[in-house]
Design a protein that fits this description.
Distance between the termini: 7 Å
Number of helices: 7
Order of helices and strands: HEEEHEHEHEHEEHH
Helix content: 25-40%
Number of domains: 1
Number of strands: 8
Strand content: 15-25%
Shape: globular
Strand order of the largest sheet: 1-2-3-5-4-7-8-6
CATH topology: HIT family, subunit A
Bound molecules: zinc ion
């Protein structure tokens, strides 16, 4: 990945874009383009450094990513994590996905297209422990992203899930019996960080200043 190259697009059988999907068609606040994925600073950023890894092609969740794309995703993940750690002087970077969410709820601007959230964290707090208590369901632990993906495949999972990688361990909550409140990851982040819950709704609080800050800081770092 070298800088911004908007001419690069994914190839292969998953190279399908949906006309009305914003993440299939986005062209601003992009930090870098790889062959199959791009990194962007999203509308409603929770903090400077909040980024998404997004497939160029339309895919509903990373649990259903085709095997041939996994290497590139994992390379992008490591690269982004290292850049954030260096630029934000922290090892605490939460990596999060709310998979399939858009299937069950009213489709929103981002939720129908897979995107992995990365947020540098400046407070203490364990997201997995918090969610376990808050939703009253047990997480499943995974040794790697591939392990998680093979579990989703073998169980033929169609339900929503929350995927959390805190750098030390990977956990997922499968939401068989509950419907997740909207903006749930944002809620957890704000709650754990003792911040105002007012910012949970990213559509009401696009935080463009923070987005700009992230772009300025990271755009030439890839
Ligand atoms: Zn899409
Ligand atoms: Zn999201």
């Amino acid at each position: 990945m070298t800088g911004i190259d908007v001419s690069k697009v994914a190839t292969g059988i998953d190279n399908v874009k949906e006309q009305n999907c914003p993440l299939c068609n986005i062209n601003k606040n992009i930090l870098c383009h790889g062959d199959s994925f791009y990194v962007m600073s999203p509308k409603g950023s929770l903090a400077s450094g909040h980024c998404f890894i997004v497939p160029h092609f339309h895919l509903d969740c990373y649990g259903r990513l085709q095997d041939s794309f996994v290497d590139e995703l994992l390379e992008t993940k490591i690269r982004l994590r290292n850049i954030l750690a260096k630029e934000y002087h922290t090892d605490k970077i939460i990596i999060f996905e709310h998979g399939h969410i858009g299937n069950a709820q009213k489709p929103t601007e981002y939720c129908k297209h897979a995107h992995l959230h990365f947020v540098p964290i400046e407070f203490n707090g364990d997201f997995v422990v918090f969610i376990e208590k808050n939703l009253k369901i047990k997480p499943i632990e995974f040794s790697s992203f591939r392990h998680f993906k093979s579990y989703v495949k073998s169980e033929n999972m169609n339900e929503e899930y929350l995927y959390i990688d805190d750098g030390g361990s990977i956990s997922a909550f499968f939401l068989t019996s509950i419907q997740l409140p909207r903006h749930y990851f944002r809620y957890c982040y704000l709650k754990l960080g003792n911040k105002s819950l007012e910012h949970a709704d990213w559509m009401k609080h696009p935080n463009w200043g923070t987005v700009e800050d992230t772009v300025k800081k990271l755009v030439d770092k890839f």
